[in-house]
Design brief:
The chain is mostly helical. It has a domain at about 25-105: Winged helix-like DNA-binding domain superfamily/Winged helix DNA-binding domain (Arc Repressor Mutant, subunit A). It contains six helices and three strands; from the N terminus they run H-H-E-H-H-E-E-H-H. Strands 1-3-2 form a three-stranded antiparallel beta sheet.
Amino acid sequence: MENQTNEKAEVNMHEEMRRAFALLSGKWKLEIMWLLHQRIYRFGELRKAIPGVTQHMLTAQLRELERDGLVSRTVFAEVPPRVEYEITQKARGLGPTMEALTAWWNEYGKSVPVKANPRGRKPVNNGRP
């Protein structure tokens, strides 16, 4: 009789990490998560805090993060309606990753070349050159 292995019981970490990366892939998701890791934001605040993001793209990225259980959206019954976004408890588990990225950036960030011309909405300069 041959040795049989239960392939379903074996975890393929490469595939699992691909699933994890997919949750945060997207041009703006990491930046959104970084901001929401700091505090709760309203939609307009997020849009202003992320130069280059369009309203359409921010909405799409927030919906995906909400669908994946990383962001919660709270609508307050006020006139006009107020909507707030915050990270979920599941997303708070990424805190050590955010802290590690901050430490890495503090050590190596100055050696990374600055990229010019982000795509999307241009940052507002309030009439300044």
